[in-house]
Specification:
single chain, about 260 residues, alpha+beta, Alpha-Beta Plaits, ten-stranded mixed β-sheet, 10 strands, about 25% strand
């Protein structure tokens, strides 16, 4: 049977999602639990990787098992053995063709910035910025990224040259909250470092160090060397991964009601 799992994690103590030699990763930690349950290695497949020190509210992965365990007991089995920084939220039995990565339609990432530079308790969970940011101008610049674009200027040098750089962003909102600014990214996928590079670019625009025309030139230039900005990882959260168009509609309606 194949299971779809939604998991939340505090990435502060982990070197990202993907297992790597000699470092702690989210993937390896979860696979160790599954190996204990099955008494043989079980591989999990995620919707995508998150970098070192990045957090998740709704990462999704799938795995296969021959164990006759209910969905509720799977969740309890995971959480009884995982560290407190990693919590499984839901386990659902799915069709054997389901794929956590290839079936994903939309993802939401939030990037959180605060001017509480002397608050030690936000150190691992927000990016600190001393200067007051012009939120209206940040939103004006953010609108440049809406729609389908080639994001070559906003990704890692290491990306496979055969991989398409075209992605579609359907929402990029700059929201002022009580103690922070939240940037909300929703799109059909994101390249490595893409959200962090766009976020820091918008922060620079918010400090009036970049103009909207500068941002437009970066995007349209499709050149990796045009953007030299990349935000710190601790302000980044993978909020959800959606596999159904209707789910996106439901979430959008809920957020509209909440805003009222």
């Amino acid at each position: 049977m194949r299971y779809k799992v939604t998991v939340s994690y505090d990435g502060s103590a982990y070197y990202g999602w993907q297992k790597q030699p000699n470092v702690h990763s989210i993937q390896e930690t979860i696979e160790n639990v599954l190996e204990t349950i099955h008494q043989y290695p079980v591989e999990i497949t995620a919707s995508g990787r998150t970098d070192a020190y990045v957090h998740a509210l709704g990462q999704v992965f799938h795995f296969d098992s021959d164990k006759d365990i209910s969905q509720e007991r799977w969740k309890a089995a995971f959480n009884s053995q995982l560290p407190k920084q990693i919590r499984v939220q839901e386990v659902i039995e799915v069709h054997e063709d389901f794929h956590a990565r290839f079936d994903a339609l939309y993802k939401r990432y939030d990037y959180v910035v605060t001017n509480q530079v002397d608050n030690p308790f936000v150190e691992n969970y927000m990016v600190k910025e001393r200067k007051q940011l012009d939120i209206a101008y940040m939103q004006e610049c953010a609108n440049v990224f809406l729609g389908k674009h080639d994001f070559t200027s906003f990704t890692s040098n290491k990306i496979d040259p055969r991989k398409s750089r075209e992605k579609t962003i359907i929402r990029l909102d700059i929201v002022k909250e009580e103690d922070c600014i939240r940037m909300i990214f929703v799109g059909d996928g994101f390249l490595r470092y893409m959200v962090r590079m766009i976020a820091q670019t918008l922060i620079e625009a918010g400090k009036h160090k970049l103009t909207k025309e500068d941002v437009q030139r970066m995007l349209e230039g499709k050149n990796k060397h045009l953007c030299r900005y990349k935000g710190a990882p601790q302000g980044l959260y993978l909020v959800y991964v959606l596999y159904d168009e209707e789910d996106l509609y439901i979430l959008n309606e809920k957020e509209r009601r909440d805003e009222k």
